[in-house]
Amino acid sequence: MKLPGKTIERLSQYRRILLNCLNTGKTHIYSHELAEILGLTAVQVRRDIMLMGYSTSQKKGYDIHELIDVIGSILDTRKGQNVAVVGVGNLGRAITGYFMGKRSKLNIVATFDTDPSKVNRVIAGVNCYPVQQFDELIKDLNISIAILTVPPDHAASVAESLVISGIKGILNFTSVSLNISSHVYLEEYDMITSIEKVAYFVKKNNSVL
Q: Degrees (nearest 5) of the Cα angle 189, 74, 94?
């Protein structure tokens, strides 16, 4: 089953909300409740859940445990996937520390940097290696995903090295758009665009006050 990227984003958001609900002791949830939390329509939530092949006849809503398991069967692999953070500056360190332990099927198993003061150390709970060991460690540690947080002028060359070393997916946090092989999935996070989007809606909201 191959779902659209926006649907996958929403499934991840649903799971996060559902896990939070479990922590509060809640066992069932309605589509309109999920929709309200995420600013969606109940129709959209039901459509996404139906795309996964899940439905419920219970009047008290979706079983949260079951729905988490179904979403996990879509998003996760059985053995899990290993991730590396490349570039251990402030952002790379923060991402590593934040992500650790958040998902059992996605594990940050290595970080990489060029700074001699950082390599061969444990940073944010993860071993940091020199970038010269890409090829060796991506294979040895079975790393399939890289989170890129290097300086912009190094982004293209580092991404190319990662692809050559066998990386299958890159999440790019740099300000440089990458042009990489089509067999590698690329997700680019543009912080400026995101902030400008927020600023636009703040402007629009203020204009009607």
A: 35
The CATH code that applies to domain 5-73 is 1.10.10.10
pTM comes to 0.84
Nearest to 71 by CA among 53, 90, 93: 53
Residues 196, 186: Cα–Cα separation, whole Å: 22
Element (H, E) at 18: helix 5-23
- Looking at domain 81-192, its CATH class is alpha beta
- pLDDT for 76-130, tens place per residue? 998 899 999 999 999 999 999 998 877 888 999 999 999 999 999 999 999 999 9
Q: Which of 161, 166, 81, 85 has the alpha carbon at shortest distance from 126? A: 85
| Boundaries of every domain in the chain | 5-73, 81-192
